[in-house]
Design goal:
Order of helices and strands: EEHEEEEE
Strand order of the largest sheet: 5-6-7
Structural class: mainly beta
Number of strands: 7
């Protein structure tokens, strides 16, 4: 998620809760960082989830997201 805190924007992983190292002046800067870095966004229950590189992997055309709190892994074919 991208949260606005005290007038600045933070990119926070919706899976593990870790925040990106940088703080952004605008929402668009946070989105640009996400696009340019290894973060991904996926729609879950009608809401966008932002996922850090530590919580997902892509291998052999399949994407996996791992919940560090439970160890549960979701895997699906990339389209």
């Amino acid at each position: 998620m991208i949260d606005k805190i005290k007038g600045k924007y933070r990119l926070i992983c919706d899976i593990c809760g870790e925040a990106a190292d940088e703080v952004f002046n605008t929402f668009d800067e946070a989105v640009d960082y996400k696009v340019d870095s290894e973060w991904i966004s996926r729609k879950q229950d009608g809401e966008w989830a932002d996922i850090c590189p530590n919580c997902y992997s892509i291998k052999d055309g399949k994407e996996a997201i791992k919940r560090p709190d439970t160890g549960a892994v979701m895997v699906w074919d990339m389209v």
